């Protein structure tokens, strides 16, 4: 059984076997969590992301999928990059958001990772409402068949922490 924990803080400062990056499809860095992971992790992550673009993901990583690189200078062995959907009021993309969590755990299993740290995927510039994103994330992790022992949601602020906490039993 996977234990779910919550931490309020900076995902680039946590220790885990794998840290999940809320990446953009280019895999080449960007803003928010993606930019922070690339900055703190250093150039080794970008080199591997460029190699992935040159080989398997010439058109970018599809939304809802995940792929791993080394973690560079982060306190982790791997970074698992996943591309969340942009929120839409007219099109339900909940399954794509859940897929980010499921696929990241599938990649973690393939690597042998036992601890994984997730951000709140798609809740920044992709505008997914925090409470709904928390519900989808926690449900996807709870329902996933995985060998990962501990999933930590690393949440940037009090609002995100409260939204995820409301999804977990006391």
UniProtKB/TrEMBL annotation:
InterPro entries (alphabetical): Macro_dom (IPR002589), Macro_dom-like (IPR043472)
UniProt keywords, alphabetically: Hydrolase
Biological source species: Streptomyces broussonetiae
NCBIfam families: PRK00431.1-6
Name of the top EC class for this enzyme: hydrolase
Record bears the keyword DNA-binding: no
EC number, as in UniProt: 3.1.1.106
Annotated Macro domain residues: 1-170
A single MF term (Gene Ontology): O-acetyl-ADP-ribose deacetylase activity
Transmembrane intervals: none
Keyword check for Protein biosynthesis: no
A Pfam family assignment: Macro
Superkingdom of this protein's organism: Bacteria
Protein name (database record): O-acetyl-ADP-ribose deacetylase
CDD domains with a match to the protein in the record: Macro_OAADPr_deacetylase (cd02908)
């Amino acid at each position: 059984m996977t234990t779910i924990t919550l931490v309020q803080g900076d995902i680039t400062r946590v220790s885990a076997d794998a840290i999940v990056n809320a990446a953009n499809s280019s895999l080449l860095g960007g803003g928010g969590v993606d930019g922070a992971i690339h900055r703190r992790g250093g150039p080794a992550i970008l080199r591997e992301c460029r190699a992935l673009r040159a080989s398997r993901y010439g058109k970018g990583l599809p939304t809802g999928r995940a792929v791993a690189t080394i973690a560079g200078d982060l306190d982790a062995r791997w970074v698992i990059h996943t591309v969340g959907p942009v929120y839409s009021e007219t099109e339900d993309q909940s399954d794509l958001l859940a897929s980010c969590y499921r696929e990241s755990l599938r990649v973690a299993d393939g690597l042998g990772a036992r601890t994984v740290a997730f951000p709140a995927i798609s809740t920044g510039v992709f505008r997914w409402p925090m409470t709904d994103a928390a519900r989808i994330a926690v449900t996807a992790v709870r329902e996933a068949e995985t060998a990962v022992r501990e999933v930590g949601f690393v949440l940037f602020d009090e609002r995100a922490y409260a939204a995820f906490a409301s999804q977990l039993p006391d």
